[in-house]
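Supplementary notes for students who missed Thursday's class. We covered one full example, reproduced here. Read the sequence, then the structure, then the short commentary at the end.
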Amino acid sequence: MQIPIIASALLCANMVLAAPGTAMRRQRAADRIAERRLGRSSNTIQRVDSELGVTTKNGTSHVEYSSNWAGAVLIGSGYKTVTGTFVVPTPKAPSGGSSSTTYSASAWVGIDGDTCETAILQTGVDFTVQGSSVSYDAWYEWYPDYAYDFSGIPISAGDTITVTVTASSKSAGTAVVENVTTGKSVTHSFSGESDALCQTNAEWIVEDFESGGSLVSFADFGSIEFTGASVNGGTGTSGATIIDIEQSGKVLTDCSASGSTVSCSYSG
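Structure (token representation):
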């Protein structure tokens, strides 16, 4: 009974020797999928009692700080559709980071999660880097459930992505990710969700998301600009609260909003 086992082991060894790059890529992909299945999730905004205080950008938008969200949040009522378009960045390890550590960040649009903490309808793209390996995942989520990956929509650095969420009710809606560059688009429909939306927050966010119950190591994402930012078909982010990420007393992002554009840069 040992012969099949030995033969199988030799076959696997030969495959690795014949194509080490392919085997390594497959293993990295398998590890990444396994890690996400442990519970990759977004979270509601986790505000920081910053000693920096509340300042002002662009003369109108207040700046607040959180450990996980950066971007712009509108607070109001009746938010049913939120959309935005961004160019996929090339993430890298932050200054002083390790090539053996995995770093990630995410760009998404959503409804709720700030003043309303019962649910978030959201969709976006994760960026992950370890050493010279960079990967991207498009996903959808109805928080507090964890995120699920879309399939059938390859994403590369430099692609233009449009993300849209639509709440048809407080317990149903859709999440759409469109790769404008390739023409590919994917949609997920939610219905009968037990955790109800309030439809009082609309947001365009760069996030340090969670995996396995704790924040992942935050990647240097360069810069992300949401253009065409709109709510319920109207343009503009007037009155939005600007959020920057602060961790361990250090501000890691620099975000602003003007008209229908929300911009965030890594500053850590």
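Commentary. Residues 95 and 268 are 8 Å apart (CA to CA). The chain is about 15% helix and 45% strand. If anything here is unclear, bring it to office hours.
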